[in-house]
TrEMBL record:
GO biological process, any: cardiac muscle cell development
InterPro entries reported in the protein's UniProt record: a-kinase_dom, Kinase-like_dom_sf
Disordered: annotated span: 156-181
Record protein name field: Alpha-protein kinase 3
Gene Ontology molecular function, alphabetical: ATP binding; protein serine/threonine kinase activity
Length: 181
């Protein structure tokens, strides 16, 4: 259940990110986090299972958390750079409260995402979930050309507060899809 909540919440952030990225010329293709479904099988010894789309090939790791707790981007391909930009965007969107830490997949379709947060109770987590990764990300993230294209600010460790779109100031008359609810 926890994995479904994390992946599907990250998917919602990714949809908002995609809408903002598509509005910017020259950004190009955007990663997609596929949905993870929880299914109930009452007649089975293990009544719950997760199910997701078959990605049609072996997963590649794009952004991972190493055993020592450090965040690593695996390479400098367009996919890896855009995954890093998505991480930056989520971190900035949530004012340093949430970070998508792990992303792997086949091509532009991502799965097995993880998060770090300092929000107690986020997605049912009883305790904080790797809050040190938030500080590390802010200190170590190297902005790339896609961060620049979206107009994301250079990161500094943020003090937790309310969320807003990092692209709000990008164009004068345009607002984030989040604010149009």
């Amino acid at each position: 259940l926890q994995e479904c909540k994390i992946q599907n919440s990250s998917r919602e952030y990714c949809k908002i990110f995609a809408a903002e990225a598509r509005a910017v010329p020259d950004f190009g293709v955007v990663p997609e986090i596929i949905p993870l479904y929880l299914i109930y099988r009452p007649a089975n010894n293990i009544p719950y299972a997760t199910m997701e789309e078959d990605l049609g090939g072996p997963c590649e790791q794009y952004c991972v958390t190493e055993r020592d707790g450090s965040l690593v981007a695996r390479g400098a391909s367009e996919i890896v750079l855009k995954c890093c930009t998505f991480q930056h965007w989520v971190y900035q969107w949530t004012n340093g409260n949430i970070l998508v830490t792990d992303m792997e997949g086949v091509g532009w379709k991502m799965t097995n995402v993880r998060i770090a947060t300092n929000l107690k109770g986020y997605q049912g987590l009883k305790e904080s979930c790797f809050p040190s990764l938030l500080e590390q990300f802010a200190a170590a993230h190297q902005c790339n050309r896609y961060c620049s294209i979206l107009g994301l600010k250079t990161l500094e460790p943020a003090k937790p507060k309310g969320s807003k779109s990092p692209s709000m100031g990008r164009k004068s008359a345009q607002s984030s899809p989040q604010l149009q609810k």
